[in-house]
Write a structure and sequence with these properties.
The complex is a heterodimer of chains A (226) and B (249). Chain A has 11 helices and 4 strands, in the order βαβαββααααααααα. By secondary structure, chain A is an alpha+beta fold. The longest helix of chain A has 22 residues. Chain B is an alpha+beta fold. Helix content of chain B is 57%, strand content 7%. Chain B contains 10 helices and 4 strands. In chain B, strands 2-1-3-4 form a 4-stranded mixed sheet. The termini of chain B are far apart. Classes of the chains: A alpha+beta (226), B alpha+beta (249). The interface between A and B is medium-sized, with 26 and 24 residues.
């Protein structure tokens, strides 16, 4: 009998969404538990005592925190429908690539921090942040190498890991009435944004755009000095 | 032993780097022969390094038959997969949950312990240093607990043999000793973290490690070189940022 799968999450978290997308891709049934981040459950605190954060996957009662670790676990525990290539070198290149997307380690190419800067700044500062974000995204543009997805003809692990980018960037563009990624400046990435977001196993797990925009507006308001 | 397969293995590294040390030990564990290419950090980077790791420009880079693999923990997983055989011990366990646990803690080592340690070694602010030292100690405390829970009766995180998490944390022992000398304390104090203290000794004395482990005194000297280089760089940057101000009177 298959062991029970539970996912502790928060609806607006990109890290949670990426785990949901991977579970959906693999056709794994799971129970989703929405956490109130202001009042975290005992289960969450016990399952992730180090970081006390979502997502946490609980498989047969055993907790796995940290979205990247969870994704690798999902790939190994449910090897059918692989998200990673079989060749060891290709497998090594996939995570190296994901490090370009968001791991800091004093790398100048960080999409996540520059994305956050773009979101939280205004005026001149925001323009600078946008330039920095676009420069970082240019690396991804190059990495697509003319393929439809980072993994090749079909989407794979790297696409899922990078998948928060199209979703959040489009929401921020909507919020600010701005364009960050478009046909003119980043044509392949622009096409990937569309292709990735329209994949059924992705689309089914994306939170409703309106709800996300309202959430973002709320976040921005809370950042305003009183 | 995986020689004679026509494999060409090179490691672009630097003697003082804990991340490079991880890879050296992993290659030793697997009995892989490799050519060591030493970079002159922090003073310069070779064209080979810049070509092999254009995004991060950092060591270590493993070159396997000319193909570069970057990021120490990724290199470890690659080595484990490519040189998996009956003779050589596995670096990662086979069970997916145990693998996830090892990866989680290895990421914690880098994100919490190494980051705090590096910050403490670099900062000029006494207050910041104090906080970062505390943060490092908290991180090591978590590792003591993890060792207590995970060992299943072995000397190492990996049980009886050196594994992924041993490599991740063990590579920092030399620099923890450097930091200890700088702060006048023992970061691997047997009174505070008894299991970890014992583990560190076992790690440093193990065969695949002891010949490649950098000497602590040499690391202390190297730290002085690094500090001087950083000070020179800040002074140069400050001088460049000051605009020439013609007299206005």
């Amino acid at each position: 009998m298959a062991k029970e799968v539970k996912l502790l999450g928060f609806w607006a978290s990109a890290y949670v969404v990426r785990v949901q997308i991977a579970l959906n891709f693999k056709g794994i049934e799971y129970e989703y538990v929405e956490e109130d981040l202001k009042k975290k459950s005992e289960l969450l605190l016990q399952s992730n005592p180090v970081y006390r954060q979502v997502p946490v996957l609980v498989h047969g009662g055993k907790p796995i925190p940290e979205s990247m670790v969870i994704l690798e676990y999902i790939e190994e525990a449910w090897p059918e429908k692989p998200l990673l290539p079989q060749d060891p070198y290709q497998r090594a290149m996939a995570p190296t690539f994901k490090n370009k997307i968001y791991r800091s380690r004093s790398s100048p190419f960080q999409c996540l921090p520059s994305g956050v800067k773009y979101f939280t700044t205004k005026g001149e500062d925001q323009l600078k942040a946008k330039e920095e974000l676009v420069e970082n995204l240019r690396i991804l543009e190059g990495a697509l190498q003319g393929n439809k997805f980072f993994a090749g003809e079909t989407a794979g692990m790297v696409d899922i890991v990078a998948g928060w980018l199209p979703f959040w960037i489009r929401r921020m563009e909507g919020l600010f009435g701005d364009k960050v990624v478009e046909e003119d400046n980043l044509p392949h990435l622009n096409a990937w944004f569309q292709d990735y977001l329209s994949l059924p196993f992705v689309r089914e797990k994306l939170p409703p755009p309106d709800k996300v925009c309202a959430h973002l507006r709320g976040l921005l308001a809370s950042l305003e000095p009183n | 032993m995986e020689t004679g397969r026509g494999d060409e293995v090179k490691l672009i590294g630097m003697w003082a780097s804990p991340f490079v040390l991880r890879v050296k030990v992993a290659l030793n564990l697997k009995g892989v022969h490799y050519e060591s290419l030493e970079e002159d950090l922090p003073f310069g980077k070779s064209q080979l390094l810049l070509d092999s790791n254009p995004v991060h420009k950092k060591v270590p880079v493993l070159l396997h038959n000319g193909k570069p693999i970057c990021e120490s923990l990724i290199i470890l997983e690659y080595i484990d997969e490519v040189w998996a055989s009956a003779g050589a011990p596995a670096i990662l366990p086979s069970d997916p949950y145990d693998r996830a646990t090892a990866r989680f803690w290895a990421a914690y080592v880098d994100e919490k312990i190494f980051a705090s340690m590096k910050g403490a070694l670099i900062t000029e602010s006494d207050e910041k240093r104090k906080a970062l030292v505390e943060s490092t100690l908290v991180g090591l405390g978590s590792m003591e607990e993890a060792l207590d829970r995970r060992s299943k009766g072995g000397k190492f995180f990996g049980g009886e043999s050196i594994g992924f998490l041993d490599l991740a944390l063990g590579s920092l022992v030399g620099w923890l000793r450097v930091m200890g000398k700088a702060c006048g304390m023992n970061f691997l104090d047997p009174d505070r973290t008894p299991r970890l203290a014992g583990w560190a000794e076992s790690f440093c004395e193990a065969d695949p490690i002891k010949d490649v482990l950098p000497d602590t005194d040499k690391l202390v000297e190297f730290r002085k070189t690094l500090q001087a280089a950083m000070e020179a760089a800040s002074a140069a940057a400050a001088a460049a940022a000051t605009p020439a101000t013609p007299s206005t009177s």
